[in-house]
C-alpha cells in the first residue's frame, strides 16, 4: 500500500496524570475528530504519540484500539520501531495480527550504528512480516542514526515490502536523493511541517504531520490546493502552518505539551502527558491561547471546523 496525502500523527489520549492510556471511547472521539476533518491516513504510536514512552503492552493496546476504531476508513500504520530489534519484531507481528495497513520503523537511538547494523535491523523486521507494508522512519535529530539513501537501495533489494520512508527532517537535498536513488515507485512522506509545501514541490507523495494532530483542516487544505494546481492557495496554507509554529513550537521539548493544550483550546481534552514530558504551566498555556486567538482574529484559522 502506497500512502499519500496528509497522514496524521495523532497524539495519544491519556489519563489526566498521563500514567495510563485513556478509555477506548476517548480515543474514538479523538480519531473521529481527525477523520471528520479529512486526513488521508494515520500513524499511531509515533513521536507525536509518545510511542517511545509507552510500555510494549500499551503500544499493542493503542494499535489494536486504533485499527478497530478507524475500521479501514483510511490506512492506519503503526510505529513499531524501538531500540531493540526483538521488541520491534514483536510489535510488527502484533500490528499484522490486528490488521493494520502497515508499519513504520524508526531507526534505533542512543547507540550509534553503522550501515551493516542498520541493514540487519531493518531486514529482520521486514522479513518477520513479509506481507505487511513497511515504511522506514528517518528522524536523525532524535535518533542520531540517519537512514542513508544507499541503505534504502540495498533494503529494497532485500525486502520488497519496504515501500517508503517518512523523512522527518528539513533536509530537502536528502529528500531528492531518496527520490533519485530509490525510484519513482518508492513512497516519500515528509515529516517536517515547515517544509510541507516545498517537499510536495520536490516530489514527496505526502506528509506525516504533527500539527495535523491538532489542526488537520490547515494541512489537508494545503495538500488539496497543491494537487489542484492552486499553488498560491497552497502557499497560503503553508504560511498558516508557519504562523501556528510561532505559537506551538516554543521551548525545547515542549511540542507535545503544546499540542495537547491546543486541542483543549479547540474543545477536545486528550488528557495529560507521560513522564518525563511535562504539561505547560499556566503562564505558558495563557500565552498559547492568546496566540491562537490572535491568529483566529486575523482570519488565519478560518478553515477550522468547530466541534
Written account of the structure:
This protein is an alpha/beta fold and 307 residues long. The protein has a single domain, classed as Alpha-Beta Barrel (TIM Barrel), CATH 3.20.20. It is built from twelve helices and eight strands. Strands 1-2-3-4-5-6-7-8 form an eight-stranded parallel beta barrel, surrounded by four helices. Helix 3 packs parallel to helix 4 and helix 11 crosses helix 12. The mean pLDDT is 97.
Summed up, what is this model?
By secondary structure, the chain is α/β, with parallel strands linked by helices. The chain has helices at 24-36, 56-70, 85-97, 115-128, 140-143, 149-158, 172-182, 196-201, 216-227, 231-248, 255-265, 282-297, and strands spanning 5-8, 41-44, 76-79, 102-106, 134-138, 162-167, 187-190, 206-209.
Keywords:
single chain; 307 residues; TIM Barrel; 12 helices
Topology (SSEs and partners):
Elements: E1 5-8, H1 24-36, E2 41-44, H2 56-70, E3 76-79, H3 85-97, E4 102-106, H4 115-128, E5 134-138, H5 140-143, H6 149-158, E6 162-167, H7 172-182, E7 187-190, H8 196-201, E8 206-209, H9 216-227, H10 231-248, H11 255-265, H12 282-297
Parallel strand pairs: 1-2, 1-8, 2-3, 3-4, 4-5, 5-6, 6-7, 7-8
Helix pairs in contact: 1-2, 2-3, 3-4, 4-6, 6-7, 9-10, 10-12, 11-12
Amino acid at each position: 500500500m502506497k500512502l499519500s496525502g496528509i497522514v496524521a500523527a495523532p497524539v495519544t489520549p491519556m489519563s489526566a496524570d498521563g500514567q495510563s492510556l485513556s478509555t477506548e471511547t476517548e480515543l474514538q472521539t479523538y480519531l473521529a475528530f481527525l477523520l471528520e476533518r479529512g486526513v488521508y491516513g494515520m500513524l499511531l504510536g509515533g513521536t507525536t504519540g509518545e510511542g517511545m514512552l509507552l510500555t510494549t503492552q500499551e503500544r499493542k493496546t493503542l494499535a489494536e484500539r486504533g485499527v478497530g476504531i478507524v475500521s479501514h476508513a483510511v490506512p492506519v500504520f503503526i510505529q513499531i520501531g524501538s531500540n531493540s530489534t526483538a521488541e520491534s519484531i514483536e510489535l510488527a507481528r502484533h500490528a499484522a495480527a490486528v490488521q493494520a495497513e502497515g508499519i513504520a520503523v524508526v531507526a534505533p537511538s542512543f547507540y550509534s550504528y553503522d550501515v551493516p547494523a542498520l541493514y540487519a535491523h531493518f531486514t529482520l523486521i521486514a522479513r518477520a512480516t513479509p506481507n505487511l507494508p513497511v515504511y522506514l522512519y528517518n528522524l536523525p535529530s532524535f535518533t542520531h542514526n540517519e537512514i542513508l539513501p544507499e541503505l534504502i537501495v540495498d533494503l529494497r533489494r532485500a525486502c520488497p515490502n519496504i515501500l517508503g520512508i517518512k523523512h522527518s527532517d528539513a533536509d530537502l537535498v536528502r529528500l531528492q536523493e531518496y527520490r533519485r536513488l530509490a525510484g519513482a515507485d518508492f513512497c516519500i512522506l515528509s515529516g517536517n511541517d515547515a517544509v510541507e509545501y516545498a517537499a510536495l514541490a520536490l516530489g514527496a507523495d505526502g506528509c506525516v504531520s504533527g500539527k495535523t494532530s491538532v489542526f488537520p483542516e490547515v494541512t489537508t487544505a494545503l495538500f488539496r490546493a497543491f494537487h489542484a494546481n492552486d499553488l498560491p492557495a497552497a502557499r497560503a496554507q503553508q504560511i498558516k502552518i508557519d504562523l501556528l509554529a510561532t505559537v506551538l513550537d516554543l521551548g525545547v521539548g515542549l511540542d507535545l505539551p503544546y499540542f495537547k493544550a491546543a486541542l483543549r483550546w479547540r474543545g477536545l481534552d486528550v488528557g495529560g502527558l507521560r513522564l518525563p514530558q511535562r504539561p505547560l504551566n499556566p503562564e505558558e498555556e495563557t500565552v498559547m491561547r492568546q496566540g491562537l486567538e490572535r491568529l483566529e482574529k486575523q482570519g488565519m484559522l478560518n478553515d477550522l471546523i468547530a466541534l
